[in-house]
Amino acid sequence: MKKFVEMIFRPGTNVGEVIFRFPFAILLIALSTIVFIGLINGFLDDTSETIVRLAFGFGIGAVFSVAGSMFGQSIELDGKRAFVPSIIAIFLTYIVPIIAIGLLQIESYQWVVAFMLAPISVLWLSLSPFIYRAHSTEGSESRAMRSMDIQNRFWWLNHRAIVSAIIAGFGFLLISAGIFAIQMSLSALFGLQTEELLYEYLLPFTGLFLTPLYWMATIPKLDDYQESEILNPDFLSRAIGFMGQYVMVPFLFLYSLILFAYGLQILVTGELPEGMLSWMVLAFTTAGAATWLLSHPAFMRTNVLVLYFRRFWFWLTIVPLILYFMAVATRIDSYGMTEDRVWLLVGGIWAVLLAIAFLSKKFADIRLIPGLALILIASVSVGPWNFINVPKILQAMRLETALNDAARTDESGLKTYEWTDESFKTARGAYLYILKDPRLSEILDRQNINYDKDNIGHNHVTARLGLRNDEEAVIDMTVGEFSRQEGASVDLSQTPYFVGEMRLFLNRSQNIAGLSFELIDDSILVDAGNDQAQNLEFADWILQQDTPWITNPAIDFLINERSFKLIIQKLSIRENTATEKIESLLRVEALLFTDSALPDPN
Question: Distance between CA 439 and CA 552 in Å, rounded?
């Protein structure tokens, strides 16, 4: 009996070990799980951007903490810890995750693109155990052998971590299927309604907490590495290697021939490559780098195709990369910088640096593949030069230069703009790109253009600048989105009884408690039958709100001698930008309350 009790209540060896290895990461995962369950069950406001960002922040912080812990474990392989690396490990394990959680709360992209912390954390996790120094195995004295040893360890650990993550995900799918079967059985056999408990509590807890906990438990210790696992792999490693040997390598060789043929066509015809080519080449080089990683172990190189792939691959990327930068340069010259083109430049620089490193042999190291990606992604995600902010700055400069070049002032002092076909496309493209950016207002102010500051997309702005196409002479329509402001309270003392939740779409109706609600044009028709109907108009109500926030969400109406209160949660409208008139409501989400309890339908 005693042994049974100990088995049940004493943590198992693996559980205790994983808690010891990753204590702060487990705490952050637990917090993330709690917040997500609170959001799913309505305990927390799912419309609050802060709460949602906090939930994701805890999760990303946990990944950073695991990476910091792995770095700390990497400096203990020789049985002792140096002081400075130990301090760095503490900072990486506990402080960096907190910083990441804080950065996730920043909505503005002026200084940081917070959501990019997710891929940054994963790349850093793959590298963190191999940054401090390369640990040599017994008998490995030369620098080249030490370098190969650390690369083998890097491949071994990440291979194990990725495979175990896939298994953990598959296990969660099996558990989900089991939970579904249990719920259906309890409902059919015993009439028990367990959906809320199983789907809104147990399933999120399993997926968000137990699955990552299992994955962390499967991450091997760094000193568990055996060189025999590289030379004589297990069945799973050989199965994955098969994909590289007989699928990826032949595919890449064939694709490289296609790109070389396209390069030859460009030389013959003299036509510059099109923009789509850049994405094709980026996918090509990324797949090649992934295959290079996959084919690193010695047992893979016994295959003739893999042997030739590793000998010639980076030479094969030279011509495609030349075509790549020609295509990107052509697009930037014609249309300016955009977010996509920033990433194309980053991807191209990454591929070129890899080619230089591996062709030089001296700097060839498979850690460079994720390492360079980490550095480049972080460099365009943090700082005012980030990939969202910089294109807007450059497009604003592009627009203002074009406006200044095209500006003409007549004898009466009226400024007009004379455009060529090329300058028109340049200015119009830049104008549309920064349409929602404050920099456009600053440019229009400097150009002395009169416009409505609350709706900068009015017809008269582009007409005044001469940037409208003939086909755009028709009425402009814009879609406006309203959301209930957090903290916008409503007095329900006179209508305390909740009737139901409403989701209406244009020209569609919904029945709630014997009432029919239909969204027609700019109003909601409430029909109680027996010639009892009322039309709820929204034009004046919208004017009372603080765009895009719903600050006064209640609409009161009386029907069948009963008082009702409609609390608007979200609203979408279609508006004529020229007349500022609401053409129609597109969608309404609301809650309905009444002054007395509804009769029991049974």
Answer: 31
Residue with tokens 């300058």: 423
DSSP tag of 72? H
Residue 76 half-sphere exposure toward CB, CA atoms < 13 A: 11
Half-sphere exposure of 469 (CA within 13 A, CB side): 9
Alpha helices by DSSP H, 519-565: 539-543
Give CA separation, 326 vs 282, 323, 376, 539, 567, in Å.
13, 5, 21, 53, 56
Cα distance between residue 286 and residue 354, in whole Å: 11
pLDDT of residue 411 exceeding 70, the answer is no
CA-wise closest residue to 215 among 21, 38, 366 = 21
| Cβ 585 vs Cβ 572: under 8 Å | yes
188 Cβ contact partners less than 8 Å away, ≥ 6 residues apart: none
CA–CA distances in Å: residue 111 to residues 51, 163, 381, 387: 21, 36, 8, 10
Tell how far CA 247 is from the center of its chain.
Answer: 29
- Residue pLDDT, tens place only, 57-114: 999 999 999 999 999 888 865 455 667 778 888 999 999 999 999 999 988 888 899 9
Average model confidence (pLDDT) across the chain: 81
Q: Tokens standing for 385?
A: 């030069």
Kind and range of the H or E run holding 153: helix 143-190
Cβ 219 vs Cβ 164: under 8 Å: yes
The rounded radius of gyration (Å) of the Cα atoms in the chain is 31
- 583 phi and psi angles, rounded to 5 deg: -80, -40
Kindly state the DSSP code that residue 140 receives in the 8-state scheme.
-
- Which tokens in the block code for residue 48? 């609050």
- DSSP label at residue 327: H
Going by pLDDT thresholds of 50, 70 and 90, the confidence category of residue 351 is very high
The rounded distance, in Å, linking the Cα atoms of 299 and 238 is 9
Tokens of 555: 């609409």
Q: Is 23 helix (H, G, I), strand (E, B) or coil?
A: helix
- Residue 467 in tokens: 């940037």
Q: How many CA atoms lie within 13 A of 32 on its CB side?
A: 25
Measured distance CA(150)–CA(132) in Å, rounded:
11
Mean pLDDT of 386-407: 90
pLDDT at 469: 65
Q: Say if CB 518 and CB 527 are below 8 A apart.
A: yes
Round to whole Å and give the CA distance between 500 and 513. Answer: 8
| Token output for 573 | 């409208």
